[in-house]
Amino acid sequence: MKEQEFPTLNDIRHALVKIKNFVHRTPILTSTAINEIAGCEIYFKCENFQKVGAFKARGAANAVLKLKPEQKSKGVATHSSGNHAAALARAAKVAGIPAYIVMPSNAPEIKKKAVKGYGGEIIECEPNLQARETTLEKVVQETGATFIPPYDFMDVIEGQATCALEFLEDQPDLEIIMAPVGGGGLLGGTALLTHYWDEEIIIYGAEPSGADDAYRSLKAGHIIPQTKPNTIADGLLTSVGVLNFELIKKYVKDIFLATDPQIIEAMRMIYERMKIVIEPSCAVPLAALLANKEKFAGKKVGIILSGGNVDLGKLPF
């Protein structure tokens, strides 16, 4: 994958303009109490306040808006157990086109309700990757819908990169930016935009120790697929994508890990100190920072709070 094949800074700027009626420009919040605990200045970019409750709204909107008219007429399709499913369903609804969403039978009920609420048609399958992919293939053959992947797709990466563009437009003095990594769309897009904006800004990823394929892959220099992930951070269970890994290898300095107890502690800290709702995956960067305070001492650190879709009846504290 050659660098020039990735979106340019102008591409990302144009994407932000294009999707502005589909998404929120989310706020940046700070907490004096958390700063004192962490020993640095943290600026939280609150994508938990985003449409559909997660940054995924950006990539889905951008991908839908870049479809040709004949593609739009047949709709879009994807397989997802979470936020991308809702994001694509909503983007399709706003664009006035059909959305076919393949979801595993064990997907969280809150996520299924969101997809139905946005008018997406859910096709259930067995809870494994092979079933998701074969069911999706059948749906695409039957409907002619365009497959919009959750993260390993250039238009989605371009859309996710708009989050970092907003962040740096509103808080240009950041020295470090952190984002969680699952498939890597957010971290890859963030790293790409930040590389264009200011190469001096350090980019770190954050990952659960129970689903650490991106961490191991970065150390090895090649993708090591995720096997049997086990973490409370349910949004970060997938293997890192091929396109995203290219960006991570080039522009991400390191990936830090956090255990589930550390993730829960950071999640609770944000609830108690900042009075906002986040999902476990969202707490991973703060948890990783607190576990590696010496790397961040005295710095201005931006953390992307990736989403807030959590079942409030099943909080881990």
TrEMBL record:
Domain of life: Bacteria
Cofactor dependence: Ca(2+); pyridoxal 5'-phosphate; Mn(2+); Mg(2+)
Keywords: Lyase, Magnesium, Pyridoxal phosphate
Domain Tryptophan synthase beta chain-like PALP: 21-307
Record GO biological process: D-serine biosynthetic process
Pfam family, one: PALP
InterPro entries named in the record: Ser/Thr_deHydtase_PyrdxlP-BS, TrpB-like_PALP, TrpB-like_PALP_sf
A GO MF term: serine racemase activity
PROSITE patterns in UniProt: DEHYDRATASE_SER_THR
The family this protein is said to belong to: Belongs to the serine/threonine dehydratase family.
UniProt name for this protein: Threonine dehydratase
Native source species: Algoriphagus ornithinivorans
